[in-house]
Amino acid sequence: MNVNTKNLVSITEANQNFSRVARLVDENGAAVILKNNVPRYLIVDFGQAEQEQLAADEDVISVSKRLIAKNKQAYEVLAK
After folding, report:
1. Cα radius of gyration (the chain)
2. Of 21, 36, 48, 52, which is most buried, counting CB atoms within 10 Å of its CB?
3. What gap in Å lies between CA 20 and CA 17, rounded to an integer?
4. By three-state DSSP, how is residue 44 classified?
5. What is the CA angle 1-50-4, rounded to 5?
6. For the sheet containing 38-44, what is the strand order?
């Protein structure tokens, strides 16, 4: 994941000015909150989070289909 340095916010600033964090997310899609100068939290737009979840579900489905195809004979035996 590429992080735009303009999206970095200290945890202190996020705590004191969360509306700024929300604006960053609205403008750029994400904000990274630093704790002790280390990226600790990622705030993303809810719609983007839903898209990420759908992509993960699609990956699981494709892996499942591949495993079923690979082990079709074993599944047929177990189904008897």
Report:
1. 21
2. 21
3. 6
4. strand
5. 25
6. 8-10, 30-35, 38-44
Nearest to 29 by CA among 15, 16, 45, 18: 45
pLDDT in tens, 20-46: 999 999 998 889 999 999 999 999 888
Short-list 49, 31, 50, CA closest to 40: 31
pLDDT at 9: 94
Task: Name the nearest CA neighbour of 39 among 6, 16, 2, 9.
Answer: 9
CA distance 34 to 8: 7
Separation of alpha carbons 25 and 19, rounded Å? 10
Tell me 29's DSSP state: S
The dihedral region occupied by 8, where left means phi > 0, alpha psi between -120 and 50, and beta the remainder, is: beta
pTM of the model: 0.58
Give the residue from 23, 52, 21 showing the smallest Cα distance to 34: 21
